[in-house]
Write a structure and sequence with these properties.
The termini are far apart. It contains 5 helices and 4 strands; from the N terminus they run αααβαββαβ. It has a domain of 108 residues: 2-Layer Sandwich (Fusion Protein Consisting Of Minor Coat Protein, Glycine Rich Linker, Tola, And A His Tag, Chain: A, Domain 2). The chain has a 4-stranded antiparallel β-sheet, covered by helices on one side. 11% of the residues are buried. The chain is 44% helix and 14% strand.
């Protein structure tokens, strides 16, 4: 009987203790929930990809920037003129041939005033003039230009006598040498015609005109 009474007393005590302690806690909502472990959320790291510009890309951007800059009209015209001049001067595909130097020799009539009325003399004079002109044309290199006045004598057998230059000739030493050399190389000339055979010599004067560009 004592054991039963002790057990009943213990159960009654526990029941009252539960009612006294737990019921008010549920009623007031003061039962604290069990703490929940929250896993920290890792922030996603942002990945940045930077493309490096090549030299070609930089050059294209530079060309676009330059093309956007307005060009003044007079600068554009001047640039076009320079380009056209360069195209005329330089041609890599078709080299321009060197301009040929113009070489021309002309000998005017200047017969002796005392003999010009003689047909035989004029025919002989023209023969000498033509021969000298052909020789001078071959020797002339076109370096200088001017007129050389040359006087000389021709002997009956066609040999060349004295040769001298007139003071009003061009001052070019080169042209003077060509003129004198042309007369010497053109000689000897034909013998005098029979109408002039009695003469010891014939005077000849010719202006040799050397033309160049």
């Amino acid at each position: 009987m004592k054991s039963y009474a002790y057990a009943s007393f213990s159960l009654s005590f526990l029941t009252h203790a539960f009612v006294i302690i737990c019921i008010p806690s549920f009623a007031s909502g003061r039962i604290s929930p069990q703490p929940v472990k929250v896993q920290p959320v890792r922030e996603k790291s942002e990945v940045k990809i930077t493309l490096q510009k090549t030299e070609s890309d930089k050059m294209q951007e530079l060309m676009r920037e330059v093309s956007d800059i307005p060009v003044l009209p007079y600068i554009e015209d001047f640039t076009q003129k320079l380009i056209l001049e360069d195209m005329k001067v330089l041609s890599l595909d078709k080299p321009q041939p060197a301009q040929e130097r113009i070489r021309e020799v002309a000998i005017a009539d200047m017969p002796d005033k005392n003999l010009r009325k003689l047909p035989e003399y004029m025919d002989y004079y023209q023969l000498i003039r033509t021969k000298i002109a052909k020789t001078a044309q071959r020797l002339y290199d076109g370096e200088d230009g001017g007129t050389i006045f040359v006087s000389f004598t021709v002997l009956p057998d066609g040999r060349l006598g004295d040769v001298y230059l007139e003071e009003n000739s061009a001052k070019s030493k080169h042209l003077r040498e060509v003129a004198v050399e042309s007369i010497h190389e053109a000689s000897p000339f034909p013998s005098f015609p029979k109408e002039l055979a009695k003469r010891s010599s014939l005077p000849v004067s010719i202006p040799i005109n050397f033309k160049n560009n």
